[in-house]
Design brief:
Blueprint (H helix, E strand, L loop, with lengths): L4 H6 L4 H11 L8 H10 L11 H8 L7 H26 L1 H14 L3 H18 L4 H21 L8 H26 L15 H6 L6 H13 L7 H11 L6 H20 L5 H14 L4 E2 L2 E2 L1 H13 L3 H10 L6 H5 L7 H6 L34 E2 L14 E2 L30
Helix pairs in contact: 3-5, 6-7, 6-8, 7-8, 8-9, 9-11, 11-12, 11-13, 12-13, 13-14, 14-15, 15-16
């Protein structure tokens, strides 16, 4: 029983979730079995006591008057596990208010309640408008509304002529928005892993996107231009357009997606700098400055040491020494504890004046950010859900440092969905001119 899926899930629950699950199990709508509730209460104090989790002992405690039965015990554990899964799914569903309204709208339509249906449609549209997020999921919600309205009109008045242009247009936008994002993720993965490239420089439907002006929609256009950046193309055309869309429409994307887009732009700038185009130091500095201001480069309130390093280095290269000093001081405490202890960046008075970035060697003479040389054929491994981050070359770089992508530190529980009301991304008119 020690390795059962049930115990693995229960050990991951927080205290408030344990209490909520207890209420869930006591609800007759979900559970009517008293033995399941007794099993749950027995397991809670014994989750980290393997000696108490012997199945014969557990069964005898729950059913002292019954002979031991492996079949009955496994069925009981299985039933409790299914209820735990149902609780987790229900909790996630109820936290998504838009999904609740969408399913309620569908339920009213199926029960032929047009008044209730129209009221719920209005609530859903107001909620979508208030969120300010207009990513691919936003257009999928809009498509669901148009589709349910179409079905309701067909049921109430089949002879009336129906206008399907809005439904078709919204379906198309939702499809291409999701497709373009997946293409960019696949292209980013190709740059990290040795896999066959299934994409050509110009995909067949790109002409259609431009002809239908779908690239003018931020959630499609930003990935359209981002695709060329990932391939190392479009310095003069696609990067300026990508940057304008990113700065002007960041509030239309979720926090996680906005962070991925900023990393995509930063990686492109780093690649240009490492190829000798030093004019991209200013572009990189503006991306870091805006990303830190909007807090999109922080993960759970913490900053990657690679972002910290590159942001300071880019500021020094454009001689923005005051900002570099402020960055070092203000964001030092936002680094993870191990990175703070091994902090390699130091700017003394002379360093601020000259722009030289000094490093503090470890007792053995090695540099904290350096890595051993890779063996022939060895591949770097990066998380597939995030775009990798390069480290740039700068003055007095230790000889062992390479210029490959450095993966950001990832942890479970990244923020998903809509941004908090107080988040800086909800502030409007934060375009590129604010950086100059």
């Amino acid at each position: 029983m020690e390795k059962s899926k049930l115990l693995q899930v229960l050990r991951r629950l927080e205290k408030r979730e344990i209490s909520a699950l207890r209420k869930f199990l006591h609800s007759p709508f979900f559970n009517t079995r008293e033995d399941v509730r007794r099993l749950y209460e027995f397991l809670l104090p014994s989750l980290h006591k393997p000696q108490h989790l012997v199945k014969e002992k557990v069964f005898h405690t729950l059913f002292p008057d019954r002979p031991n039965s492996d079949r009955d015990f496994h069925l009981l554990v299985s039933y409790l596990f299914k209820l735990v899964e149902k609780y987790l799914a229900t909790r996630e569903f109820l936290q998504d208010e838009l999904e609740v309204k969408t399913q309620l709208m569908k339920s009213y339509r199926q029960r032929h309640l047009p008044g209730h249906f129209q009221y719920t449609v209005g609530q859903l549209r107001r909620a979508l408008h208030a969120s300010e997020v207009e990513d691919s999921q936003y257009y999928e919600r809009q498509r669901d509304i148009y589709w349910e309205e179409y079905q309701m009109k067909v049921a109430t008045d089949p002879s009336r002529k129906l206008n399907l242009e809005e439904l078709t247009r919204t379906t198309e936008i939702a499809f291409f928005a999701q497709k373009m994002r997946q293409i960019c993720l696949l292209t980013a993965q190709r740059s990290v892993y040795t896999i066959e490239d299934p994409l050509t420089a110009q995909l067949p439907f790109f002409d259609y996107l431009e002809a239908q002006e779908l690239t003018q929609i931020p959630t499609i256009g930003i990935y359209f231009h981002g695709y060329y950046l990932l391939r190392g193309e479009g310095e003069a055309t696609h990067f300026p357009r990508f940057k304008i869309l990113l700065f002007d429409h960041s509030q239309q994307f979720s926090l996680t997606e906005t962070r991925e887009l900023y990393l995509l732009a930063v990686n492109f700038c780093v690649r240009q700098v490492n190829e000798g185009n030093r004019g991209y130091f200013r572009e990189m500095f503006e991306l870091y400055q805006r990303g830190l201001e909007l807090e999109v480069l922080l993960e759970n309130g913490q900053l990657s040491r690679f972002t910290y390093h590159n942001a300071v280095a880019s500021a020094i290269q454009i001689q923005s020494f005051d900002w570099a000093r402020q960055m070092i001081v203000e964001y030092r405490d936002k680094l993870e504890a191990p990175s703070r202890k091994r902090l390699p960046l130091q700017l003394g008075p002379a360093g601020i004046r000259t722009g030289q970035l000094h490093r503090r060697p470890t007792p053995r003479g090695r540099y904290p950010l350096s890595r051993p040389p890779r063996q022939p054929g060895q591949q770097d491994h990066y998380p597939q859900n995030l775009l990798p981050t390069r480290r740039i070359r700068f003055a007095r770089s230790p000889p062992q440092c390479d210029e490959q992508f450095y993966p950001p530190q990832t942890r479970p529980g990244l923020p998903q969905g809509q941004l908090p009301k107080h988040h800086p991304l909800h502030q409007k008119n934060h375009g590129p001119q604010a950086l100059r």
